[in-house]
Amino acid sequence: MKSNKTEKIKTINEKTLIAALDIGKKVHYGYFRTPKNKDIKPFPIYNTGQSFKKFWKKLCRFKEKYMLDEVVIGFESTGPYAEPISNYLRKKPVKLVQVNPMHTKRIKELTGNSPNKTDKKDPRVIADVISLGHSLTVVMPEGTAAQLRRLTHARERAIDHRTAMTNQLQQLIFVIFPELVSIIKPSTKTGMYLIKNFPDPERIASIGIESLSDIIRQVSRGRFGIDRAEALYNAAKESVGITEGKEGILLETNHLVSNIETENRYIKSLEEQMIVYLDQIPYSHSILSVKGALIFLK
What letter would DSSP give residue 139? Predict the structure, then answer.
């Protein structure tokens, strides 16, 4: 497995070609510069294999023309739009680096360059940052490490999605049964069960204190008992939640609960796969022995 440690590129020697990429969703803009400031105008690179090949041929011709030995290709730290071309270039004899967007912004301000995000002068600014030594090597995991990174990112997105749905659910419950959110959190297993099966105060009140107490004790595995049941029952009988238009809200809460349950199953399956790949990494057993270790994986 390759090292995941990034290293700062401190020097660009007199035989190094600097290639900068201004990454975009549909089109990138490339730029070449020699150590003696011989360069070409920024040019478009499209997210296709054919365009990538043209870019590579153009780079090779430029390198041969000025008799350069090394190639450093850099771009701003960005999202998924840089991944296809990075994957293409990692197989080439080049050094891939990334620069901090804050550095390019400061260079723009100092040189009077346009701050417009779509300005085609951006690759020149990125080349300036690389020349000054403010860039880091690009770490591209392979094999097990790559799979683990993808699973981790998927888990992070799923958790964010679940959190958004849970917040939305809590807002809706507050409208029809505001007292519930202060007695039992809707995001807990017990709260979710009650919302799914007894989503409004009338249904809570209809089952009686004893039945409600048994349900809460069983679902919470003894964490909540008669005191919590009495508080919820009394609040349900005197709830100030709305009644007009409530059916529409109940339809939405039922939909959200179903989606949250689906997301929970998906997150669990991701974590199971993460453990499978972690088992293939040396010293992973030490990591997995820590409670909640998956939370800290990036």
Answer: P
289: Cβ contacts below 8 Å, ≥ 6 apart: none
CATH superfamily of 16-140: Ribonuclease H-like superfamily/Ribonuclease H (3.30.420.10)
Beta bridge partner(s), residue 45: 28
Q: Residue 18 to residues 34, 53, 254: CA-CA distances in angstroms?
A: 6, 18, 56
Average pLDDT over residues 126-150: 89
Q: What share of the chain is helix, strand, coil (3-state, %, to 5)?
A: 55, 10, 35
Angle at 253 between CA 180 and CA 262, to 5 degrees: 110
Task: Quote the percentage of the chain above a pLDDT of 90.
Answer: 72
CATH of domain 145-296: 1.10.287.4070
pLDDT category at 103 given cuts 50, 70, 90 is confident
Question: In the chain, what are the domain boundaries?
Answer: 16-140, 145-296
227-240 pLDDT per residue, tens = 999 999 999 999 99
DSSP-based three-state secondary structure for 77: coil
